[in-house]
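call fold(seq) -> tokens
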Amino acid sequence: MSHPLDDNLGLLYFLAQRYSHRFPLWEVDEIVSEFYQIARPAYDRRFDPDKGSLSRFLTLIITQDVHYKHRRLHGAIRRRIDGKNRWIQLEQRGFDFDEYE
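ret:
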């Protein structure tokens, strides 16, 4: 038995292309992969067709859950500043191997 998202991969690709500007470090296929990994369990737990369409539900997943994961993977954190949640990009720090030779 196939999962409803398996039958709607075209919709996942459409939404990934539409919102690709939010994920500048990922290609469309990477967005779809991350989108699917997050959307499938979310669908099983939270989707209710009486509350809205699959398209609207998936739009919320990609613009909230996947966007959050993308930002976290690329060094950003959320902090409450002046009563509002804001993203802060942390500096990427690595070892300078030349310094230790």
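The first strand starts at residue 76 and ends at 81.
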